[in-house]
Amino acid sequence: MKHTPLLSRHESLGGKIVDFAGWALPVQYSGIIKEHEAVRSTAGLFDVSHMGEIAIKGEGALDFLQQLVTGDVEKLKDNQVLYSVMCDDDGGMVDDLLVYRHSTTDFLLVVNAANTDQDFAWMKSHAPADVILEDLSMHYAQLALQGPQAQMVLQKLTDFPLDKIAFFYFEPQIRVANRMALVSRTGYTGEDGFEIYTAAEDAPALWDAILDAGQNFGLVPVGLGARDTLRFEAGLPLYGHELDRTISPLEANLGSFVKLKKGVSCRGSAALRAQKETGVRRELIGLAMIDRGIPRHGCEVMQGAQVIGQITSGTYSPTLKENMGLALVSRGAVNMDEELSVLVRGKLLQARRVPLPFYQKKYKK
Amino acid sequence: MNIPTELLYSKDHEWVRVEGDIAYIGITDYAQSSLGDIVFIEMPALGSTVRMGGTFGVIESVKAASDLFCPVSGTVVNVNPTLEENPGLLNSDSYANWIMAVNLEDKAELAGLLDALAYKNTLK
Question: What phi and psi, each to the nearest 5 degrees, are found at residue A210?
């Protein structure tokens, strides 16, 4: 298994190490529910160094990215971040990612750990001669500091006034705990917070400094288990669950991230335009369990005797204290509040469609 | 790792407390620690038959579901009512919170269970 620069830290903190996409990472330290609750009420620190970082530079960089992602990269300002997806010709999603724009000739893409190598190969195969691509994943470590107290904690470690970093903007180089870092106000939890990119060798010192600064704020280290329950409650998609090559962004509630009007057509735009005309076949809905049981990825969703779709993600929600599910089902099959069934380990359990997201995000906009 | 000496154990990390003809069954401290936060438990129906080595229910943590394997054979005479609403009690104290009570079919089966020391050795 690969490991981040922080593996020994996780082990000494009592982290339960598991294999996540080939990486040795902690699924939890003190417990998923405790860690989840800490992020919602105070703050949590995540090691997300397994994510991939790809630099895209050159005169052709802007045009290349306009063709690569469904969002409008030209409308971005320098130091702004875009959440977007890369699609294949048929509109299926290759990956979701963040695009950090330094300038029109200098971008940093942050992609999922499980897809880094494929994404890099995909980008390289479609890049023109005047675009330089570099996979910097092994050089960067990434920490995520999330929660209502995140800014208070981080401000203790930097002179830079963090209020100046707006939602989905970044500072390319500020000194945090005496190390250089790129800091963005972004995250995957539905809370206010920051993602902090630093040289791999600086990660342990930064990790220690943040945990130390956060001691009086209730900051705890948080593992992958809570990362999943947090993003699930906030309605954020996970690759391999709500996103994959067989799913269109228009089916996965990501239509607002698909900008078909922009000057340059992106890969998949013809298919996406056609889908917008005729309508997509499926939609992503939220459901709350009525019968006792937890819906899990892959469970069939039924209306009477008919299978209408599948659970993409399901779990116990620590904030709502209820079992919830996300499901990709035939479009229009289920009205809000309408009952449906989920086949869980051979038993048909009743559930009810509920609005998304399950948890109202607390972004500082 | 807590392993009370007065109990019997199965290699599947269940404990057994015998009171006359009744066996109270639960999961060990090692089991609850491995599972992490327990958020759901499916227990057998009263009066149902359970077989040694067969499954008698399902226990779910936030991340995954696991089968519960039965250490003895018999008839289920009771299941713990507090666990339905509060499965997390199994994390708080896995020995104070029994899962089910079974009327033993064959007390000779108990000889096949492990004592505390033998169970502790399986954890190495």
Answer: -70, -45
**ipTM, interface predicted TM-score of the complex:** 0.87
Give the pLDDT confidence of A227-259 residue by residue, as tens digits.
999 999 999 999 999 999 999 999 999 999 999
What class does CATH assign to A53-126? alpha beta
All residues of chain B having their beta carbon less than 8 Å from the beta carbon of residue A33 are 37, 39, 62, 88
pTM score? 0.94
> Is the domain covering A281-354 a CATH 2.40.10.270 domain?
no
Q: How far is B114 from chain A (nearest CA, A)?
A: 27
The topology under which CATH files domain A2-50+138-233 is Gyrase A; domain 2 (3.30.1360)
Q: Does B36 touch chain A (CB under 8 A)?
A: yes
The torsion defined by the Cα of A18, A241, A346 and B32, in degrees rounded to 10, comes to: 30
Residue B119 inside a domain? The answer is: no
